[in-house]
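The protein record minuted underneath.
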Amino acid sequence: MSERKDRQNFIMTEGISFLPPIQVGYEIYYENLEIQGIQDRQTIVWQFIQGSNHLLDWEQEPSNPQDPHAIKIFGVSEQIFSTKRDMLGYVPCDVAKQIVTSGLWPFLQLRLDYISVANQGFIAIRFQILGPIRKKNGDEKLLGGPSLKGERRNAQATRPAFLFGRETEIPKAHGSRIKRLAFLILRITLITLGTMLAFVGGTMGTAAWQAKGNLFVLMLVPLALILSGGLLIWTGIKPSKPKEKPPT
């Protein structure tokens, strides 16, 4: 009974807009999508709305007997004593099939758009799907849709072949990790080699000093080894300078 009264007092005639900032390198693939099956989970959905710091999460459900491409959507919100993550519904089936079969699933993101509650308690939650920025080939006519206005694009009019085809730029995170690992191994090698050279040079210098011969001649090789070792150690430990981005 109290929940029904709260719903009556929590009426959003215009709704609440969220739209958190888009991550750098991403753009809108789909917009104006509504979570499907939300009316079957009214209590959970209402708890999600009453929370704060609302986020959406999702995961595939290949074991779904009705649709092997089904994607579940979860609502994440901060409650009074904890953070709750409950299932709200599903991605529309036609969009879910394109996402699962495209191969871009690991690179896509959900973006909470809009929550509205009507007078009769009808709840609607709209969301967007973001993906890596696509290459602009200058031929917008082939896309079958209007040009991009601000951050919004009519994703329904854009052909799936363009969304998930070869023109999509996929982040090269794997290659970047390999480069960082190789650079780390090179630094460790330089530091180790420099330490060995400095140690050998110091040992030879000590022996030359004890020999009490021509110190100038005897100390040339140890000093060269020590200086070489120190240079290698410094090369291995000095911070790398970040690459400056050319002005746009």
Notes: Residues 174-237 form one domain. Confidence is low (pLDDT under 50) at residues 1-13, 138-171. DSSP finds seven helices and seven strands in the chain. The first strand starts at residue 12 and ends at 17.
